[in-house]
């Protein structure tokens, strides 16, 4: 056994009972929450940001774009450069980054400076996503690794569900700059939390570090990444353009209700996945895709019915909440301990490509074909993801999981 793996095993042993280190894992969940809310909250503040900086809404929208670009370009290089660093100081540096760049955003009166701050906040997010999964798995014995990752990822659906509505409400009450200031305050609290409860682990010795190519060619990695791309592309086509999709049914004014239903069901999904992932990973992946396929068919056949749409959105949320945990756990199992800190940034890159691709593909479909084409395209993508998942029995989504 390698010294890298041994150090992890030593931390997990010493006769301690097999239970989750809740406070430490929830600190990682809060880190994920800060990543997502920092990314998405400008969407609800665009008019206020535009007024505050004397720019158009479209220009304010680049707050989201620059953040995504930072995450996309930084994830893999940052992971390669920092793989030998100790984990807790690295995590603290990342959260300090959020503190600094959200504070700059809150105080800046320059559009250019604000965009630079957003880019580097995205860099911090790319760095965080590259290490959260591996960090969570090192805190627990093998039998609890899937459950630990589920806890560490719970901040994501919470931020997606409540972040933008709460941010919008706070923006109206106290101003958009104060909202970014509050996110800086959250980062400050998290720094204290990490120092209090999150254990430290060594980085990987140089002779045990894997390259991106070595990880990419491992059996099972490419099928899982293809499932990430197709599944998340389908999700983002619908999620990005949910408002125009709801127009034919007269629900365009109730996007908030639909996203609330989606988010609440996503939280249920996280709970279910957390309970079952260590025994039923493969089955959960296949069921999630199958239920999303059913939701797509329902939208295709009854896309103008309020009750059908409500039911389909609920099913969609039920399949999405645990998706990140399922896919990251499968990648971690396929890459092994030496490759987990590299495969996660690769996953982050593919995930962001799917987000960008969803925006581009959905926009093209909306412009040239119409929203009625969305369910059919989703169905094709999801069937492809299901076939790949079903076929990856020996490597990827293992048959005995």
Structure report:
The protein is mostly helical. Helix content is 79%, strand content 0%. The protein contains 17 helices and no strands. Helix 3 (46-53) packs across helix 4 (57-82), helix 9 (155-174) crosses helix 14 and helix 14 crosses helix 15. The longest helix is centred in the last third of the chain and has 48 residues, at 255-302.
Please write out the topology:
Elements: H1 3-12, H2 22-40, H3 46-53, H4 57-82, H5 87-107, H6 111-129, H7 132-138, H8 145-152, H9 155-174, H10 176-197, H11 212-216, H12 221-240, H13 242-246, H14 255-302, H15 306-320, H16 323-368, H17 374-391
Helix pairs in contact: 2-6, 2-8, 2-9, 2-10, 3-4, 4-6, 4-16, 5-6, 5-10, 7-8, 8-14, 8-16, 9-10, 9-14, 12-16, 12-17, 14-15, 14-16, 14-17
The low-confidence runs, each spanning 5 or more residues with pLDDT under 50, are 1-16
CATH top level label of the largest domain: Mainly Alpha
CATH structural architecture of the largest domain: Up-down Bundle
Mean pLDDT: 86
Count of distinct structural domains: 2
Shape field: globular
CATH homology superfamily of the largest domain: MFS general substrate transporter like domains
Taking all Cα atoms into account, the compactness measure Rg is: 21 Å
């Amino acid at each position: 056994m390698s010294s890298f793996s041994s150090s992890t095993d030593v931390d997990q042993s010493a006769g301690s009972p097999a239970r989750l280190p809740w406070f430490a894992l929830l600190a990682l969940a809060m880190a994920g929450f800060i990543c997502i809310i920092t990314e998405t909250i400008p969407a609800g503040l665009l008019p206020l940001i535009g007024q505050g900086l004397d720019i158009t809404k479209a220009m304010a929208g680049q707050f989201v774009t620059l953040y995504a670009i930072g995450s996309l370009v930084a994830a893999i290089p940052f992971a390669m450069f920092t793989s030998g660093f100790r984990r807790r100081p690295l995590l603290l540096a990342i959260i300090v980054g959020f503190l600094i760049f959200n504070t700059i955003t809150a105080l800046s009166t320059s559009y250019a400076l604000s965009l630079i701050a957003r880019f580097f906040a995205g860099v911090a997010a790319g760095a965080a996503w590259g290490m959260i999964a591996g960090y969570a798995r090192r805190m627990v014995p093998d039998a609890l690794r899937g459950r630990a990752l589920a806890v560490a990822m719970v901040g994501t659906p919470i931020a997606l569900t409540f972040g933008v509505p709460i941010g919008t409400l706070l923006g109206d009450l106290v101003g958009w700059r104060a909202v970014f200031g509050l996110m800086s305050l959250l980062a400050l609290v998290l720094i204290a939390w990490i120092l209090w409860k999150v254990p430290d682990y060594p980085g990987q010795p140089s002779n045990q570090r894997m390259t991106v190519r070595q990880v990419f060619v491992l059996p099972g990695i490419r099928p899982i990444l293809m499932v990430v791309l197709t599944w998340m592309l389908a999700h983002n086509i619908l999620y990005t353009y949910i408002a125009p999709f709801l127009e034919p049914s007269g629900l365009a004014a109730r996007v908030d209700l639909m996203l609330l239903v989606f988010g609440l069901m996503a939280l249920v999904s996280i709970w279910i996945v957390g309970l079952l992932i260590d025994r039923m990973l493969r089955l959960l992946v296949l069921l999630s895709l199958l239920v999303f396929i059913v939701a797509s068919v329902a939208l295709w056949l009854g896309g103008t019915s309020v009750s059908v749409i409500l039911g389909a959105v609920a099913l969609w949320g039920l399949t999405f909440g645990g998706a990140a945990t399922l896919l990251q756990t499968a990648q971690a199992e396929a890459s092994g301990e030496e490759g987990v800190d590299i495969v996660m940034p690769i996953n982050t890159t593919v995930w962001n490509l799917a987000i960008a691709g969803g925006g581009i593909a959905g926009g093209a479909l909306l412009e040239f074909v119409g929203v009625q084409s969305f369910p059919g395209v989703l169905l094709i993508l999801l069937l492809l993801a299901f076939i790949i998942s079903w076929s990856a029995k020996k490597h990827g989504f293992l048959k005995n999981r």
